[in-house]
Specification:
By secondary structure, the chain is α/β, with parallel strands linked by helices. The chain is built from ten helices and twelve strands. The strands form three sheets. A six-stranded parallel beta sheet has the order 6-11-10-9-8-7. A four-stranded antiparallel beta sheet has the order 3-5-1-12, covered by helices on one side.
Length: 284
C-alpha cells in the first residue's frame, strides 16, 4: 500500500471516516485538553491472530497531527499474541484521543480478515487450489479488506466491475443464454481479457466450454457434480468453486481439483481482532 496513487485513495477514505466520527469537534477531548501537549500510548493485542493494516492505523494519526510518530514492534502478516505490545504511538494527546477509535476500527477489521483468511488458507495447504476473495466487501472499505486478504495468505479476485469479465446468472438471463453472453463479451472486450462464466449445472458448463470461456465458475454445485465438472473442463479452461464457502465446509472441496475457490466469508463474516490503545500519558 505504498504507491502514491494508493496513498491518495487511502487518505481520502480515512478522512471520510474521521469526518464521520468528528463532524464539528471532539467535544470531550477539547474539554479536558485545552492546549497541545505531547504524549504516548501503547497499542496492545488482546487476542491471538494475524496483524494487518498497521500503515493505515499510523496514517490516521498522521492526518490529525503531522508530528505524530508510531514505532511498531511488528509488521503486517506477523502472528500476534494476547497481551503483546504491538506499537507505541507518540503525538499531540488531542490527536491520539480523537483518532483512537477510527485507527482501531481499521486495524481491528483488517486484522480480523487477515486472521480468518489465514485460518482458511491453512486448510488448503498442500493443494493446488488458490483461495480468492470476492466483491462482498464493506462499502468504502474494499481497498483495505482486499489488502488484508493478501496479508492473510489469500489472493484477490477482480477488484471491481471494471477489472474483469465475470458473466453471472443475471447476465446470462439478460443476454439470452450462455453462448450468446460469451459471444457478446468476446465482441465487446479486448482480446487480452479473460472471460469467466458462472454455471450451475453440467449443461451450462458444456455450453460455456463450447463457446470458449476461459474460466468456469462452478456455483453452488455438490462435491460430486464439481468433480464431474472438473473432469469435463480439464485442459479446456480453469475452474473456480463458489457459493457459501466457509472455513467449516472448505474441506469438502480440497480433493476436487479446482484451480480456485472464492469465498465471500473472508470479508463479510470475519470477526474483528481485539486490539486496544492503552496507557496514554503525557511526555514530561
Amino acid at each position: 500500500m505504498n504507491p502514491v496513487t494508493t496513498l491518495l485513495n487511502v487518505d481520502n477514505l480515512i478522512l471520510q471516516a474521521l469526518r464521520e466520527d468528528i463532524s464539528s469537534e471532539d467535544v470531550t477531548t477539547n474539554a479536558v485538553m485545552r492546549e497541545s501537549k505531547a504524549g504516548t500510548a501503547d497499542l496492545i493485542c488482546k487476542q491471538d491472530g494475524i496483524i494487518a493494516g498497521l500503515d493505515v492505523f499510523k496514517r490516521v494519526f498522521e492526518l490529525l497531527d503531522d508530528t505524530a510518530k508510531v514505532t511498531f514492534k511488528v509488521k503486517d502478516g506477523d502472528e500476534v499474541k494476547n497481551g503483546q505490545l504491538l506499537a507505541v504511538v507518540e503525538g499531540d494527546i488531542r490527536a491520539l484521543l480523537s483518532g483512537e477509535r477510527t485507527a482501531l476500527n481499521y486495524l481491528q477489521r483488517m486484522s480480523g480478515i487477515a486472521t480468518y483468511t489465514n485460518s482458511v488458507a491453512k486448510l488448503l495447504k498442500g493443494s493446488n487450489t488458490k483461495l480468492l476473495d470476492t466483491r462482498k466487501t464493506t462499502p468504502n472499505m474494499r481497498i483495505f479488506e482486499k489488502y488484508a486478504v493478501k496479508v492473510g495468505g489469500g489472493y484477490n479476485h477482480r477488484y471491481n466491475l471494471s477489472d474483469g469479465i465475470l458473466i453471472k446468472d443475471n447476465h446470462i438471463g439478460a443476454a439470452g443464454g450462455v453462448k450468446k453472453a460469451i459471444e457478446m463479451a468476446k465482441e465487446y472486450a479486448p482480446f487480452v481479457r479473460k472471460i469467466e462464466v458462472e454455471v450451475e449445472n453440467l449443461d451450462m458448463l458444456k455450453e460455456a466450454l463450447e463457446a470458449g470461456a476461459d474460466i468456469i465458475m462452478l456455483d453452488n454445485m455438490t462435491p460430486e457434480m464439481m468433480k464431474e465438472a472438473v473432469a469435463l473442463t480439464k485442459g479446456k479452461a480453469e475452474t473456480e468453486c463458489s457459493g457459501n464457502v466457509t472455513k467449516e465446509n472448505i474441506q469438502n472441496i480440497i480433493d476436487i481439483g479446482v484451480d480456485y475457490v472464492s469465498s465471500g466469508a473472508l470479508t463479510h463474516s470475519a470477526p474483528i481482532l481485539d486490539l486496544s490503545l492503552k496507557n496514554l500519558k503525557p511526555i514530561e
